[in-house]
Amino acid sequence: MSVDFDRPRAALGELLFRDPSLSGDGKVACSDCHHENHGLADDKPRAVVVGRPETAVNPPTMYNVRFLYKLSWSGKYDSLESHLDALMTNPKVMASSWQRASERLSQKPSYDAQFKAVFADGLTPHNVREAVLEYERSLVTPNSPFDRYLRGDAQALSNEAKQGFGLFKSYGCASCHQGMAIGGNVFERFGVLRDFFADRGHFETADLGRFNVTSNERDRFVFRVPSLRNVALTAPYFHDGSAATLEAAVSAMADYQLGRKLDAKDTALLVAFLRSLTGEYRGKPR
Amino acid sequence: MSTSGTLRGSLAALVLGLLVVLSYSTVHAVDYAEEAAYARDLRRLQAATAELNERVLRSRAALMDQYDPLVHALRDLRRLHQQLRRVPAFLGAEAARDLRRQLDASEQELRRKDELVESFKTQNSVLQNSLRYFPVLANLTIDRARLRQGGDAVASRIQALISAIMLFDTEADAESTSRVRAAQADLATAKPAAQTLELERDVELILAHSKIILEQKPMADGSVRQILAVPLPKLALQLEDSYSRYYRSATQRAIVLRQALFGLALVTVALGLTEVILRIRRSASALELATTELRAANLALAREREKERQLGELKTQFVSMTSHEFRTPLSVVLSSTELLESYGDGWARERRQDHWERIRAAAGSMRRMLDDILIIGRAEAGVLRASPAQMNLDEFSRHLVEGLEHSTARSHCIGYTFQGDPRVTLDERLLSEVVGNLLSNALKYSAPGSKVQFNVVASEERCRFSIEDQGIGIPEHDLPRLFESFFRASNVDQIKGSGLGLAVVRKALDVQGGTITVTSNLGIGTQFVVQVPRNLAISTSLRSEA
CB-based contact (8 Å) between A222 and chain B? Predict the structure, then answer.
């Protein structure tokens, strides 16, 4: 599988992704919540960044965002562009604007030439945004063992992973986690057969999920089903980061979506399958 | 000139009109690339709505349990709506408004459909989850129940529920629904038995999933019905209908415009051609005029050349005639002089006298000739002028007659009469040339002894001289050339003459404003009548004033 993106612009966008100059106070970079050594997600249940309140939800991975039809846990955003603009101006996140970011970047002499190299009009607010967007579009992780297996390479999956795939289908997981991103194309209630939030014991606004966007009663506790690609890299899991491990996440899913306590064997098989969903980034296994 | 002005004016107006229509037509010209793109999007809109419905049905049937195609179809529809808002310019503003209004309605339906698809996906996922897991769980529980004592009753009730659910999944009608409910109730009554078998939790989960299936399936089916009922395909069709209508009227408008353009262009070309033809005609008539003028000039030139040639000829003739005429008296002078020199001493006085006479006569003849030539030359050079002075015409005429009688030794009888007042103002020298020449000619060309009548009448305004002889006459065919230099009538025979006399007469008369007429009968006689103004000084001054 291949996707089109402008490599020099994406490379510039990657620099910007790591540069705190993009934020209003010049202290927070995108990579502060989307760790490069952690599947471009946060390794803590909520991101804790200096000068910012704790995030309401666990920052999800940015890999394969271009394939998601809705962004954020509540599915508030329809496009990478609207999502990025919202994060940029959100006072709890970047607390900035493209204009301010552009001005801040122009004080660093090296950027001028780098922007001129990939944009005819050089360093402008619009081009700062374009570069970051291009970086987001470049974050694809093809060629996971599971992909190779689906292409006919029977050896790509271990026996455990193959059995896990069987369980994944028969236990109904594939009803929601499906499609190209293995998830990410449907909304679903968290807790179909059991009440997750009652069991957890406390309640937060973020738990209302899509209801916060639509105010529609049937959208209470409804979240965008996350993509399972690279899921092994991005613990902890769920919007509240309440599952510290893959095994915990699989058990919780079986418990609340299926009404069943999985035994250790089934859980291990399913986890083996989930680990086969880790792809390659820029030709290298993650 | 005025027609061509109007023509040029209307031509300019037409060109202006052409430009206006052209600019209008470029704005409203049917852009076929744009049309093709828009029409393609419209068809794609219909295809995408149909595809979406098909995907929903297929998802429901779990033939393709992926929502990606749904997501893509919806995204396509949203994108197409955005694209179709850019209505081709050639359709006009009204069509654009109408199509956008329809698109607004269609987009509203699309949003509704989007929401319905979202809830369908959510419902369907739960349903599919249970439909997949229910048989797995149920069969697992049956296996475990059969392994235990007294488990068969529970197992058979679970089996009955599986059958009821499968039937329900195939056709969710009232009958299959009540059958599921009955099977659920049946299994619920077996709960205590399940408890003893330690299968209570599994039975409860089986019941829970069957409940989900029973609830979710009608919901999902209802969503599907609602999704299919969203009149998006109908709106897409209406949209295409409207577009086709607008497109047709746009093309018709374009055709009318094109015809108008064509007509205008045709008229412009026709008018332009007319202008060109008129110009060609104008220049042709100018050419014709120029040609005529040129021809006339050519003719005049040819005439002039002919005259020049004749003049040249005349001069050559003049020179040869003159030299010839001079040669005769010169040879007389030479021979007489030589004779006198050689034999003069021995000759008698009379004989010597005779030769001296000859020499004098020859020299006189030459002098006269020179005088004549001088007069003709001056006249032709335009420098001969009359110098009028008071004179007595009667006296003048009498002197002339007497002089001639004397020089011809009274060989003829000259009858002379005079009437009127003799005091006139004329150029005596020129007048003597005229009358003298005519009288001497009359004597020369008539037999000795014959009569020459010379009558002079001086009336109030003019003087009339009539000289009539009884001589050889002049052939009629010679009359037209009578006054040319060196011309002599064909019947002069041996009579000597230079042919200058009458030419001198004519030239001398011309400068005095006089006229001459001749009447002649061959062998009988000739009469010349000359008339000159009586007072030349007044008449010339009057003439110059005029």
Answer: yes
What distance in Å separates the CA atoms of residue B367 and residue B328, rounded to the nearest whole number?
Answer: 13
Tokens 């992909």, residue located: A147
Tell me the CA distances in angstroms from B345 to B8, B339, B342, one per residue in order. Answer: 105, 10, 8
**Treating both helix axes as pointing N-terminal to C-terminal, what angle do B393-407 and B428-444 enclose, rounded to 10 degrees?**
40
- Look up residue B484 and give its two tokens: 């040319």
Q: Lowest-confidence range among A78-92, A258-272, B220-234? A: B220-234
The ranges assigned to domains in chain B are 31-230, 388-545
Beta strands in A161-247 (DSSP E): 187-189, 222-224
Give the dihedral sign, CA B62/B66/B68/B71.
Answer: positive
- In this prediction, residue B542 has a pLDDT band, given cuts at 50, 70 and 90, of very low
CATH class of A7-137: mainly alpha
User: What is the SS3 assignment for A8?
Assistant: helix
Contact flag B65-A222 (C-beta cutoff 8 Å) = no
pLDDT tens digits, B82-110: 999 998 888 888 999 999 999 999 999 99
Q: Give the A:B interface size as CB pairs under 8 Å.
A: 75
The type of residue at A256 is Y
| DSSP 3-state of B369 | helix
Per DSSP, the residues of B215-255 read HHHHHHHHHHHHHHHS-HHHHHHHHHHHHHHHHHHHHHHHH
Coil/strand/helix, residue B385: coil
pLDDT at B334: 87
Which residues 47-76 of A have a C-beta within 8 angstroms of B? 69
Residue A33 CA to residue A42 CA, distance in Å, equals 5
d(CA A67, CA B521): 140
Q: How far apart are the first and last CA of chain B?
A: 42
pTM above 0.90, yes or no: no
For residue A131, CA distances in Å to A2, A103, B231, B468 come to: 20, 15, 41, 136
Q: Are the beta carbons of B66 and A178 separated by less than 8 Å?
A: yes
- Going A255 to A261 to A266 to A269, the CA torsion angle's sign is positive
Given the candidates 1.10.760.10, 1.10.472.80, 1.10.3720.10, 1.20.1250.20, the CATH classification of the domain at A145-285 is 1.10.760.10
Domain boundaries, chain A: 7-137, 145-285
Supply the Cα-derived Rg of chain A in whole angstroms.
Answer: 20
Query: Angle CA(B172)–CA(B174)–CA(B177) in degrees, nearest 5?
Result: 60
A positions 79-118 inside 8 Å of B (CB)? none
Place of tokens 């369908």: B120
Nearest-by-Cβ selection for A192 from B126, B131, B136: B126
Integer angstrom CA distances of residue B516 from A133, B201, B432: 125, 168, 15
A45 neighbors A248 (Cβ within 8 angstroms): no
Q: List beta partners, residue B414.
A: B452
pLDDT digits (tens, 9 = 90+) for B168-186: 988 888 999 999 999 999 9
State the Cα torsion A166-A169-A170-A172 to the nearest 10°: 150
Query: Measured between CA atoms, how close is A163 to chain B, in angstroms?
Result: 15
pLDDT digits (tens, 9 = 90+) for B223-248: 999 998 988 888 888 988 999 898 88
Residue A222 bridge partners (DSSP):
A189, A209
| A145-285 and A7-137 share a CATH fold | yes
Cα pseudo-dihedral B197, B201, B202, B208, rounded to 10: 140
CATH of B388-545, one of 3.20.20.20, 3.30.565.10, 2.60.120.1680, 3.30.70.270: 3.30.565.10
> In what side-by-side order are the strands of the sheet with B515-521?
B413-420, B451-458, B462-468, B525-533, B515-521
Contact of B139 with chain A, judged by CB distance below 8 Å, is answered with: no
